[in-house]
Structure formats: structure tokens, C-alpha cells
Amino acid sequence: MTRARVLLLTAALGPLDYRVPQGSEAPLGSVVIAPLGPRRIGGVVWEDESFGAPDPVGDNRLRNLYEIVPVPPIAAPLRRLVEWTSDYYLSPPGSVLRMLLPGVAFADARRPIVEYRATGELPARMTPQRTVALGKIGARQGTVRELAKLADVSEAVIRGLVHVGALEAVSASADQPCPEPDPAFAPPDLSAEQTAAAAQLRAAVAAARFETLLLDGVTGSGKTEVYMEAIAAAVDAGRQALVLLPEIALTEPMLTRFAARFGCEPVAWHSGLRSTERRRAWHAIASGEARIVVGARSALFLPYARLGVIVVDEAHETSFKQEDGVHYHARDVAVMRGYFEGLPVILASATPALESLAQVEAGRYRHIQLPARFGGATLPDLAAIDMRQDPPDRGRWLAPPLVDALADRLEKGEQSLLFLNRRGFAPLTLCRTCGHRIQCPNCTAWMVEHRLVHRLACHHCGHVMPPPRLCPECEDEDSLVACGPGVERVADEVALRFPEARTAIVTSDTLWSPARAAEFVANVEQGLVDIIIGTQLVTKGYHFPNLTLVGVVDADLGLDGGDLRASERTFQQIAQVAGRAGRGVKPGEVLIQTRVPDAPVMAALVAGDRDGFYAAEAAARRAAGAPPYGRFAALVISSEDIEVARGVAQRLGAKAPVADGLAVYGPAPAPLAMLRGRHRFRLLLHAPRSFDLQGTIRAWVDSIDWPAKARLAIDVDPYSF
Ligand code: ADP
Ligand code: ZN
Q1: Who is most buried in 465, 513, 635, 709, counting CB within 10 A?
Q2: CA dist 494 → 224, 406, 417, 551, 573 (Å)
Q3: Ligand nearest to the CA of 351
Q4: Tell me, what's the ipTM?
Q5: Ligand 2: distance of its center to the CA of 640 in Å?
Q6: What is the pLDDT of residues 50-65, one digit of tens each?
Q7: Measured in angstroms, how far is the CA atom of residue 462 from the centroid of ligand 2?
Q8: Which residues does Zn(2+) 2 bind (predicted)?
Q9: Ligand closest to the CA atom of residue 440
Q10: In the CATH scheme, what is the code of domain 381-427+484-618?
Q11: Cβ–Cβ < 8 Å for 295, 251
């Protein structure tokens, strides 16, 4: 009889033993379906020794595995990565495993999924709901469930539309072959500097050994062109390549760019895929047929058959940090994957994270620099506008020098970009009469006005409400006023000042799909947009040669709050958005609106002194024992019942571990004291780098009894403070 230990796809349980049915084989790494009580649950055959004590169930009482799923086994290096991730981020291994094996992994790749699309026929009986649904569906196709979600109606409504002939089934063949990228399709003529950098990357791929390479090049230096050479080398060697991007919105333009270089689009992986696409992608990745994969951070855990290189583009981006479920940092996990698999990892950035530069300094990462823009383009000039001396008109947000610069670009037919990292119209709605502020009922957060869609929305939980006419508190009429600017309000000001200018607002509200993102890029490239007004979504990736002016509407926005990375983030964000200016033959200008032009970060930006800024920042962090020289971990205890959450936090606080070098702060209300209807308390740990934070936290958390109504989230190396 063969016994197999199986790590199941559930957070609640460790591995369990099963019997391998006679005549079947289930070597290590096999993907299986197992019985769990009355349920069927997926899992992976794992080493006996990995997770603690053996399963005590005797041979004669073992249950049979239901099925060995016919997909390639999860290889040993990836199993080690699952263990490391679980250990380091203090997350159940079953939760980590789910990132490798989404539901589509278990679907038969040959069974067709039925998708539907509009026929153009209107049903005889049109209900308002059907009209709205068909309007929202438009020309898109998807399964019944996907269309229901898209149109925000029940599945019954969609099935009704199929029944009356307004939607028709289309056969979505699930196993279309992936096109083969051709490394020789359109290689660029690299400059001497680029050639040297590319040669190092190619050699690292050929060596097929673990190494981390920091590709550190100014904006527009050709980092993408250069790392594509490493990818070409991997494809030439019969390997797969993975490129991680920080935003879904960047995938579509990147796919197009890869198609121009390699003759066909890579395989995409992100949360916006339809289930057919997702299923096709997963199986092509696992079989090795998908040669180049471009994806969001979740692409990192997939079971590549023959991975040869990982590229993390815009590697400094904080969106690589996952803030729910398994709280992992994709940049760090990418490096660990490279370590376990024995392959090179390339971190590309114009403004590397301080953590990455510290690794270079320590001799652990190889530093590859591209100090100049490609093709003779120069870096833009940065200047600060002191908002105390040059304030905008009352109720306006653009200072006179910025307005003049915009007018100048309009006259010359050049494009401008206004950057403000705030979605919506106004971040706060206030009653002039009684001072009431409209707050989210579920979160400690103001409701943000989104005027384009006539809604107030909470940016934390997604709660929306129509804008009230009366103050909810004093019931005064016409007393509610919008406070502060969001991108929509800046767009209003632009429209008022320059009625002839063609503008585009770019936020996750307007660029919610890859198709919308592609449309935006095409419009700007064809010169159909004069002024772009956008959030951090426009700060990276884009290359618009005719864009010569960048205005940073509120450079101080990110400096408030207690975030230890506030200065670094501000530097990176402004340097990145500045990098959108002057990428063609015309030089670029960047105007930074700030009330603290003398702050070191502003001074460094204006002086172009990146090294000086990083050195000062590193010194300050070292003195404070902050990352990367020390470590933090946060424990957030939450419950719908505030007393339960407070009680657990206090009991935990009373048993706080005591050790040399370790400091424990709290419990205190978490920065978002209420989130999605749950009250949150936080304990923060601070320790030197070498301290065993994980072991300490594990023992500590086990030392108290947890009521069922309290939940614990552990964030190792937290990013939001
Ligand atoms: P980065 O990623 O460093 O910001 P990109 O790789 O996006 O830079 O390059 C900036 C622009 O210059 C892109 O339009 C790119 O196609 C172009 N470019 C860079 N290097 C070359 C090259 N060797 N030959 C042709 N075009 C290049
Ligand atoms: Zn909310």
C-alpha cells in the first residue's frame, strides 16, 4: 500500500495522509484531489518531513485519493518556495499553495467553456434591466457568470437573454496553441552602454545560476530593451521568462511592445483575465508552452515548467507588496524563487528601493547601470514652485507659473501631464453649517466624491452612496462643500482655464481594463490629447515623445502620515513621473508644486542629486534601526465587536515577548481603526535584522486563546504604517 502526505488547498489544516489507489502513482509534487469530510479538495503530494508531526492515522483507516490530476507535478524548488513563503510571512502553507493552483488548474483543459456574446437582436420583451445589461456587455464576451458580474445583474437575467436570442454561445476553444516568440524577429540596435548591460544579463541567463541583478537606469535609458535581451537569451535556451509588472494597466502596452520585438504577444496573467484565458494561460505555463509570461505579482507563484529568468520591472513599486491574504512582497519572493530554482532575477528600476541598493552595497546584488537616456534625449529640468509665495487663486489648485507653462505647451502643440495621486473630485465633503464630515459607515475614512459618476465612494471598502442634498447631520440645504482636489477637480480647472484643450483623466476608475488602457495610449500617441491628468497610474511605463511638461500638483501629499518610507516614496514617485517628460527630441520640464521646497527630498529632486538623497535617507534609517537595517512586523487584531478586538489585543499585549533588542509597541488602534466594518487594533514589533521575529511571533500568538470572533493578520516587513 502507498501512503501519500498531501498538503491541501486550505488555510485551516496542515498536511494529511491518504492512500494512493491501486494501480495509480503519486510521486512527490503530484497534484491530487482528496476527500476531506464530505468535500473534494485539491492538494499536492508533499515530503513527509516538511511540516512537523506525522499524521497519526493508521494505514487501515486512510481514505483513498479521489484523483491524480493530469498536470505536471509541482517541482521541488517550488515546493521549497511554498515552505519558505509560509514560514517567512507566517501564513498557512495551504494559503500559499492556492496561489500556485487556482481553480483553473483542476479544470480539464480540453473541455470547452461556453462563452456568450450579444447577437445584436433585441428581445421582444425588453425590461429596463435587460437594456442596462446589454449596454454594459456591449461587444464583450464571457461565461454566464462573468457577464452577470460585468453587467451587475443576476445570472438568471443573462440566461434569460440567451433564451430570447439576445446573447449567443460562441465556442471558446480552450486549447489554442501559444504562438512561439522569435528572439530574432526584431532585435534593436543597442547603444554601446546598452550592449554592455545586455551582455551581462545574457551571460547571467546562460550561466543558469542564482544571481540578483539590479538594472538601474534613468527613465528612458532603454531598460526594457535591455532586459528583453535577457528574455531572448532564455527563449533561445529553450527556457521560459517571466516579467512582473506593478499594475494591470501596464500589461496591455507591454504585450504590444513584446509583440513588436518577438513577433507575437506573450501570455498574460492577471486578475482581469476571463476564465477561459486564465485556464489556457495556466496550462500553457505548466506545460512549458508559454515561453514569455507578462503578469501581475500573482504570476510569480505559478508552476513554470522551465523557468529561465525572472524580471521585476519598476521593482521599487510598493504595489508589489500584497496587503491581504498572504502578505508577501513579490520583489523579495522573486529573489527567493531565483534562489531555489537556481536562476537569475533582474530588478529593473530608475529609482531602486533603498533595500535593493543596500544589497548592492553589501555585495549581494550585481549593479548594472544605464546613466543616460537613449538616443541623445536629455533628462528633464526640475524646478519647485513655492506654493506659499506663488499661491493659486482662491479655490484653484494650479499656481500661476504652472498655468503659464501649460499655456505655452498648448500653443506649441506639445503635450502636458498633471500628476495628482488622488482619485475622484474631492477627498472630503464638509457641511459649512455644522462642520459634519461625511464618513464611510464601515471604515475610519472620509467618503471621496466622484463627480463624473455622481457618487461618494470609500476607497477602502468600496462603499458607495449618492451625494446627499442635505447635510445628514443638521439637514441644512446646500451647505455641503467639497474640500481639497482630486484629479477630476484639477480637470475641471483645466477645462475652465483652457476650454479648447483636449484632456484625459487617467486613474483606475477610467483605465479599469487593459482595453481602456490601450485606447488611452493610442489617443495620446495620435496627438488626440493635450493634457493628461492622472494618478500614480501615469507615472510609469509610458513613452510619449511629444510630452514635454509635467506638473506635480501636490508634491507634499505623500509626506504626511507616519510612513517610514514617505520621503523615499515621494522621491521615487516624482522622479518617475518626471521621467515621462522630454523622452523624445524636445527637452522636458517638470514643475513641482510644494509648500516645503527646502525639504531634503524636494531639494534633491531639483538638484538631480539621487545619490545624495539615498545616502542621507540610508543614514537616517540606519540611525533609527529602520528597514533595511532593522525589521518591523505588525499584528493586526480585528473583530466586528470592538470589545472582542480590544480584549484580545490587550491579552496579547500583556504577554508581549521580552528580548534583547526587541521593542513591542501597542496595542493601539490600527491606522485604519475600522475597516470593512471590523475594528482593528495593532501591535508593532521592531527588532534588529538578525532577530528571529517569526519564531517569536509564532510562540507569542500561540500563548493566548483566540475567540472565534477575532481575526489575526500578520504583516512581516509591513509597508503601510
Ligand atoms: P526605460 O525602460 O529605461 O524607461 P525604454 O526601454 O522604455 O526605457 O526606452 C525608452 C524609449 O527608447 C523606448 O521607446 C524604446 O523603444 C527606445 N529605445 C531604447 N533603446 C533603444 C534602441 N537601442 N533602439 C531603438 N529604440 C530604443
Ligand atoms: Zn469604507
Answers
A1: 635
A2: 33, 9, 11, 12, 23
A3: 1
A4: 0.98
A5: 14
A6: 887 777 788 888 999 9
A7: 6
A8: 440, 443, 458, 461
A9: 2
A10: 3.40.50.300
A11: yes
